[in-house]
Write a structure and sequence with these properties.
The protein is α+β, with helices and mostly antiparallel strands. The chain contains six helices and 13 strands. The chain has two domains: 196 residues, Glucose Oxidase, domain 1, CATH 3.50.30; 37 residues, no CATH class. The structure holds zinc ion.
């Protein structure tokens, strides 16, 4: 079994509008903290060192993460939308399939037609709970500022096609599942159409599904199907997303 890491590293980066901050507490500082209740400091510890730790400040959507239905709106399918810690674990360990939809912002969001074409090309029939990974190649821009502005996104129609096939988890190797924020806002300004704004995300108010954003290295998976994906999200109380170390398991 080969394990292929499909996640980015949580790090301070210009690729995200809210950069992750990491404060490192050294082994020496850790000794002072641990010893404090007893009135001792680093000088009393073996080699002058205690235990290190890190303080991390980030959003629930920083780095590679899984969006939960409660991110899209307060309700889904007419019931309260489930948050990340409420979702069934079996959604996050299933057979995987990679669909190749390369391009950048100029190509527009990935369409249902492209997904059908790719499924045809790899001769694969989707089954319920498959984890579908859409490879656009946008991860090559991580960790530059262009990562936030230059990627494709996925149309509402393509999302609906997958969810209607029983898919619960769809992943994409770019900043977001919808087109870049600037593109959507400019289209709204131009047309006044409300459906220009986060249409694939808002589809999740009608039908329950999760999306993995900021995947990476999908090109390292040696075959389009015939592998498994593990993408368990971290449990954060009532959160609309959770970070995940996404891994492809290839026999
Ligand atoms: Zn997200």
């Amino acid at each position: 079994m080969r394990f292929i890491d499909l996640s980015v590293i949580l790090e301070p980066t210009r690729a995200e509008p809210v950069p992750t901050e990491i404060g490192y507490v050294s082994h020496e500082e850790g000794a002072d903290i641990l010893g404090k209740p007893a009135g001792i400091d680093r000088r009393h510890f073996p080699d002058g060192m205690g235990l290190s730790l890190e303080y991390v400040r980030l959003t629930s959507h920083s780095g590679t993460h899984v969006d939960a239905p409660s991110h899209y709106g307060p309700t889904c399918e007419g019931a309260p939308a489930r948050s990340i810690e409420e979702l069934p674990l079996e959604w996050f360990f299933q057979d995987g399939v990679v669909l190749d939809c390369p391009g950048d912002v100029r190509d527009g969001p990935v369409t249902r037609g492209e997904l059908l074409e790719q499924l045809d090309r790899i001769e694969y029939r989707l089954k319920p709970l498959d984890i579908v990974l859409i490879r656009t190649g946008a991860d090559r821009l991580w960790p530059t500022a262009e990562y936030f502005t230059n990627f494709r996104g996925v149309t509402e129609d393509a999302t609906a096609f997958l969810v209607e096939a029983g898919i619960k988890v769809i992943g994409v190797d770019s900043f977001g599942f919808d087109p870049p924020f600037g593109e959507m806002l400019a289209e709204y300004e131009r047309t006044g159409r409300q459906d220009a704004l986060w249409p694939a995300h808002f589809y999740g108010r009608k039908r329950e599904y999760c999306q993995i954003e900021r995947l990476a290295y999908l090109d390292r998976i040696p075959r389009p199907h015939g592998f498994r994906v593990a993408c368990f999200p971290i449990k954060i109380k009532r959160a609309g997303a959770g970070w995940s170390r996404v891994v492809a398991l290839v026999p």
